[in-house]
Amino acid sequence: MMDALEPMTPPASEPPPAAGSHGLEESWDVSRRLFDRIREVVRGRDEVIELVLIALFSDGHVLLEDFPGSGKTTLAKALGEAIEDQRPPEQRGAIEAFRRIQFTPDLLPSDVTGTTVFEPKTGSFSFHPGPVFAHVVLADEINRTSPKVQSAMLEAMAEKQVTVDNHTRPLDALFFVIATQNPLDLAGTYPLPVAQLDRFLFKIRMTHIDRAAELDVLATVKTRRDVGAKHLRGVTRDEILRARRAIEDRVRVDPIIHEVLVDAARALREDRRVLQGVSTRSLVLALPALQARAMIRGRDFVNAEDLEVILPRVFLHRLELGAGADEGDRVIAAALKPAIERVARATLTRV
Amino acid sequence: MRTMSGAATLFHGLILGAAAAIFAAPVALPAGLVGAAVGALIGTLAAAALHERRYRFSAVLLLALSLAMGGWLADLVFVRTQLIPGWLGGSLSLELADAVRAVFISSAVVLVLRGLALRLRAALAIEGAVVVLSVASTVAAHRDGMIARPLQVADWFWTQGLDPVLAFLALGLFAALLLAGVIASGRRFGRTLGQLLFVLFLGAFLAGRLHGLDPEDRRDLMGGKGSEQDEEEAKQRQEAKEKAEARAQSGEGGNGAAPPGDGKGTQPPEDLPKPGGSGKDRPAAVVVFHHEATPPWGTFYFRHAVFSQWNGIRLVKTSRADADPDKEASFPTASRIFEGVHQLGVGRTSVATDVALLVDHPKIFTLADASQVAPLANPDPSRFRRAYRVVSQVYTDPYEDLIGRAAGELEWSEDLWEYYTEMPKDPRYFELAAELQASVRPEYRDEPLAKALTIKRYLEENATYSFKNNHEGESDPTASFLFSEEKLGYCVHLSHAAAFLMRAMGIPARVSAGYAVAAQNLGSGSALLIKQGDAHAWAELYVRGVGWVPIEITPEKTDVEPTEFNEHDLQQLLGEMARREGEGLEQTQPPPSLAELLKPFVDMVPYVLLALLGLAYLTKTWRLLAPYVLSWRRQPKVAYRAALDWLAMFGLHRQYGESREHFAARMDVMSPSFRPITDVHVGVALGSQRLAEGRARFMELPELVSGVARELRLGAPLWRVGLGFLNPISWWWSR
Lengths: 351, 735
Prior knowledge:
The complex is a heterodimer. By secondary structure, chain A is α/β, with parallel strands linked by helices. Helix content of chain A is 46%, strand content 16%. In chain A, the strands form five sheets. In chain A, strands 3-6-9-1-10 form a five-stranded parallel beta sheet. In chain A, helix 1 packs across helix 2 and helix 1 packs across helix 10. The longest helix of chain A is centred in the last third of the chain and has 23 residues. Chain A starts with 24 loop residues before the first helix and ends with a helix. Chain B is α+β, with helices and mostly antiparallel strands. Chain B has three domains: 207 residues, no CATH class; 355 residues, no CATH class; 135 residues. Chain B is built from 25 helices and 16 strands. Chain B is elongated and about 130 Å long. At the A-B interface, helix 13 and helix 14 of A face helix 20, helix 21, helix 22 and helix 23 of B.
């Protein structure tokens, strides 16, 4: 229900932050380059791209709920390809830039995590890493596979490590998952319970792109296939990791934002329409997301607009509503209103 | 579908209830008023409920119709059958019937009105019109402060010491407010209520100011006759009177025979009561009795003019010094004694009365027979025109004691005797007089009183009291009345006829004009209300040793509706007011009324309001100018606040729950300069490192504020700009 939320303006024309000591210029440049590269390939999805980048910079994962052929894979692939790993191969190990897992009912956990095989030549066991050993992983139709595989995948997402044969192997620090599921075709699926949805920072539900964007897609289909986005400069893995640290350190979160976060969560829990409110973990996850958005928008502080945009997308899939209740986004908007008002009132009294 | 909040519906119901009660006030018992109000409330709630449940309007109409039927049925059950009255008793069941009927009818009417208004916005106008009309119809009866039915409203205001006219103005204001409430209550309820209360306060303040004004000014304000106008009228009257007197004297000079057909002379003198006319029930004065005395004829006569001189057409005021010692007098400036009357003593009781005039009166009038008049301080200048004290010698002995006394005084000169018996030479008077004298029983033939009573009985049996024919323009109006077939006439004709007939029998007689009030009106109290409708003229004969005795003629036949006296409360009240000053020595300070207690505060209100207004403008100006005055460090706050104030001047406010960023985005179309100000303000407030060091950006802010002002001014029509500047509290809504 993206359309019910606040429409986002693309950050494209935002000027780079003026030179100063805040140290976010590099991060902003990274986000800018990533955004431009993905946008070159995926048209009419600026909001989704921004959310995906926010998740990337805040070390979260996203679940895209979308119909087939809407550019999920393209987006994930473009993101994976935009990230170069410039480390020497021995450091890099078996980490790929982009891997895709097509989830099916007969998939096994080892198909995801990797497996140990006996090497007759050397007479020893060696580990063959699974597709999760990559920077960007596209987990396609994650609700089609058995809970066993789902939990293996979700463990990897939560812990950034996999355990195969009692041997724990760390995943890459960048490890970023874009999972998808089809919102309609639900026959023979294993829907993710709320507890597992909690592992995703965002669940992004999308509608069809608008007419102009669709026309644009058709008009540019050849160029995009032939040229791609290779002519635009990508980013490196290390740049992203540095940006993550910079965001955490340098984007200021005012105490009033903390208060408002907690107040909004409490209001949601107390709402009679809500069966299960949002967890404290979701608030912890929301903080870097708020900071990441502020950075992408060229700010070094979190403001109320960030709250308005991020919180509904963090909270919506974590709420369990009672039967017959309103749309979740309306419930969240009601809980958010006093919080936003508080921030607005606070500014005039403190300056 | 338009729905209203519960509170707004309730508010609406209360307004309609008030209107219904006011409408019912003249026609219903107290229980009925409550019933009407409750019915209106029920109707409002029912209309809202039906509307919410999406009932069709035809269903609403049907329900209203059945409610109206219910009202009719209630009337049938409660009053027309024996069942309920037999059980509850008559008056209780009558009141109950009134209440139940009012509930049914008022709920039916309101249901239709509200039902229509909820479906059709334009129908709100009908509703408003009904509200205003229901209030107006009740108040209309009190036009000009007239004391007329229904009395509840006016009387109540009199008891509160308030002028009803003022109260009616307040009622009008109230009605307008009700209308405004009806129209506005569908909108934002809280704000509407606040505004209504403010307007009500303002109205109360204005009313208070008006009340505090000097009475002359107030009458002008109320659109009544200005005092100058009144004086002018009085002057004109005075001139007319002088002319009439001059004419009378010239008539006297012409050997007692006025030229018949003198067009001017046929006009009746001003002092005689005129028939009919408006303001009959309007109070003219209140008389406070200091002593008890009731004349045997049961009527208090207040004279203001005496007519005893024959001018060839009718009796006019005397020009002789020795006649009528109690002739009319101007208002006293000092105590004055009427010598002739003072010597009267037989069967008389001395009575002191205080007269307080409620309307301008050209001449003093006194309770018969006045022996002394003295000025009196006006007990309440805002209510009474002027006041004076009269000492009267009221004849209180039994009527029978008058028998056996001759007419006239022995010491009267021949000339004076002739003067008091002068009359038209028309032989018909003498023929009729002789005929009547012959009908008196032989033993009383020499009794002047018996003859007078015979005349009285003759006129009462044969004349018809009527205003239809005033016999104006006749050479002898009295003859025209007395010798016509129908004998249509009113007090002027009756008294003249009686006087002439008595004179024809040789009895000294005259006509007095003034007011006649039934003694029973005095009741148990001591105050007597004189209404303008009490104006009267009556015949008098002179009984030796007693003085002038009135002969009241009340024809058995009349075509005039009799009026009843029913203003005892008002009379008592006005009497108390008039007595306040008259108490003299034992003057006690009356407890201050609420209005008096509040007066200092009310007087302070305009200054407080003015001060508040000045403060508001000062604040507004300061907030707008602060960015240009204060240092750059303060800019993130003051510049943003000034920009907000500019927006607020044009009615642009951030909504509740709207973030500052969102508001800035919303305003972007109208004022692009607002956004950068917002960015700096919010950034600094939320701890941006980068912005905190940006002195250059802070310095730009005043410039941007000017930009906001310019953009808004250019984008709005001139009147809106002016309104924005004039609004003293636009900044209040900056948030």
